[in-house]
Automatic annotation (TrEMBL):
InterPro entries: Globin-like_sf (IPR009050), Globin/Proto (IPR012292), Globin_bac-like_CS (IPR019795), Hemoglobin_trunc (IPR001486). This is Group 1 truncated hemoglobin. It comes from Ramlibacter aurantiacus. It comes from the Bacteria. GO terms for molecular function: heme binding; metal ion binding; oxygen binding. Its cofactor is heme.
Length: 124
């Protein structure tokens, strides 16, 4: 019999602690990725942005945490983020998932969710 996937996406990403580790790795990757680093270096409060990203990720994956940050569209409005920057950021996220031993199927689900958000990020 084929095993049925019973764990939620949130659980498969390691819950709050796992997602926190992943987001920290994502931010480290952004800061050493020349395609996006200047964007994050320009942030006035990177720790707060990181905290908001953890909440966003947790809430978006079915976790109990509430997202208390700005609407995605509002947060990225006026930055004029390009398609290339968006792809570079996605690659950083996928790299962090791999680094944290997240399996292929789960990485695929996260990719689909991120892709669905692009209209709120690119050139808004
Ligand atoms: C699907 C992809 C993305 C998601 C889910 C996402 C999510 C978020 C979230 C939740 C925040 C915090 C909002 C808040 O402070 O209230 C944020 C902030 C930020 N995002 Fe994104 N983001 C994405 C893509 C990008 C890209 C491609 C860039 C630029 C290359 C970018 C640049 C930034 C910057 C610079 C901030 C900090 C703004 C500040 O400190 O004022 N984001 N993002």
């Amino acid at each position: 019999m084929t095993p049925v996937e019973t764990k939620s996406l949130y659980q498969r990403l390691g819950g709050f602690d796992g997602i926190t580790r992943i987001v920290h790795d994502v931010m480290d990757a952004h800061l050493s990725n020349p395609l996006v680093a200047p964007r994050f270096q320009a942030s006035e409060d990177l720790d707060h942005a990181k905290q908001m990203a953890v909440e966003f990720f947790c809430a978006g994956c079915g976790g109990p945490e509430a997202y208390t940050g700005r609407d995605l569209l509002v947060a990225h409005k006026g930055m004029n983020i390009s398609e290339q920057e968006y792809m570079a950021a996605m690659d950083d996220i996928l790299g962090a998932l791999r680094k944290n031993d997240i399996d292929d199927a789960t990485r695929g689900e996260v990719t689909a969710i991120l892709y669905s958000l692009k209209g709120q990020i690119i050139r808004v």
